[in-house]
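Subject: for your reference before the review

Hello V.,

The reviewers asked for a structural picture of the protein, and I figured it would be easier to keep everything in one thread rather than splitting it across files. Below is the amino acid sequence we used in the manuscript, unchanged from the supplementary table.
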Amino acid sequence: MATNQGNTRLGWTLLLLGTALGLLHWLPFSMDWTILLIIIGAGLFAAGVIQASHRTVFPGAFLALLGTLFYLKHRYIIHERWDTIWPLIITFLGISFLVRFLFSPEKRGELWSGVVLVVLSFILLVTPEIWFDLLYWCGRLWPLGLIILGIMILLKSTRR
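And here is what came back from the structure prediction:
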């Protein structure tokens, strides 16, 4: 069964990639790599929705959103510099986790990952100077993260 799903995903991917490349050569309008990225992402997302598979929904949503950002930046619709809009990429990762959670609600990690990434990216977008403070504190407090992770692992192992 897993091989059949893998073949179906590969078939959808090749179908969409071939269609996009064919459109690139045959249609009179110009299509660049950003549109190709959007098409591949939308195709993976559509394949995931049609098959009710959470595996292709995540990369599909992420690639479609990322392609849209690159398209808008490439066409000068978004004029901001990359050093101010890069947190949008984190937002797209968060949104992709949230979309994946919609397809597999039993996985609570997807929900919390998405929420944390969206909130973090919002903070970085609103106050870009906090990025340097965040790097400073992460550089100073990373051993605390190891301690917390160790405690969590020990607590989980004692529950069993």
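For the response letter, the relevant points are probably these. The chain has two domains: 2-128, 131-160. The mean pLDDT is 82.

Happy to draft the paragraph if you're swamped.

O.
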